[in-house]
Amino acid sequence: MIEEVEAVATQQLRDAVAAKVKAAEERREQCEAAVRDLEAQIASVQETLRAIEDAPEVTQNDLLERENARRKQRTLKASLAASRAAAQKAETDLAEVQLAADKLELQDLQEQVRKDVVSLGEYFLNLEQQVRQRLAAHRDLVAARRALGDAVRVGSGGAPGTHTGGTVFSTISEAEGELWDGIARALLTVREMGVKRQRAYLHGDRAEEDGK
Question: Where does the record place a coiled coil (predicted)?
């Protein structure tokens, strides 16, 4: 029950952070669009002023238009400065919420790694137990082989084993071979899991370096 509540709370936190990131991105885009629009308006006013200055004859209307253009230019420049400041703040806000999102993602990754390590440790312990069991069974087979050899020698007066004894020896040898094959497979599995885990961590480190 507690884990379910924690999972819901964590998901709600992720959703809230994602919403803040989206809002900050939209705000930044709006501010940047406003800056571009004001820059275009200022460029248009400057073109008007240059056209008046380059005219061969300046009329009274031209002088009035020039004065209006200069006033508009001053107003636009003030608005541009304010818009640039707003765009810079929006960029800063976006960086802050993005950092919060990255930290949350890092926490999720760390928790996943912790779970993987615990799971892998349990898996290795299980494999180790299997190997120990197989080794113990092998020791039992070796003891059985020796006991059977002694019994065959006693029963035949020291002569080589009978047909029945040879069959039992063969059965023990086959079981022994299967045990060693199982041990080898278990050890190989441990090695392969270790190599895969190492590659996964190395890949994660490279991804982190690339992200930097």
Answer: 14-55
Q: Minimal CA–CA distance to 183: which of 123, 115, 129, 103? A: 129
* Overall pTM surpassing 0.70 (yes/no): no
Closest CA to 32 of 93, 83, 79: 83
Tell me the mean pLDDT per 10 residues along the chain, length 212.
69 86 92 94 93 84 90 94 94 91 87 84 82 81 73 53 46 60 66 63 51 48
Q: How many CB atoms are closer than 10 A to CB 212?
A: 5
Tokens 């991804």 — which residue?
Answer: 207
Residues 6+ away with beta carbon under 8 Å from 137: 179
Question: What phi, psi does 62 have (nearest 5°)?
Answer: -65, -40
For residue 203, the one-letter residue type is: H
SS3 readout for 13-79: HHHHHHHHHHHHHHHHHHHHHHHHHHHHHHHHHHHHHHHHHHCCCCCHHHHHHHHHHHHHHHHHHHH
Q: Quote the tokens at residue 92.
A: 């800063």
Alpha-carbon distance of 102 to 104, in angstroms, equals 5
Q: Domain range for residue 17?
A: 2-211
Neighbours of 189 (CB within 10 A): 14
Residue type, 108: D
Q: Is 206 left (phi over 0), alpha (psi -120 to 50) or beta?
A: alpha
**How many other β-carbons are positioned within 10 Å of the β-carbon of residue 112?**
10
- What total number of domains does the chain contain? 1
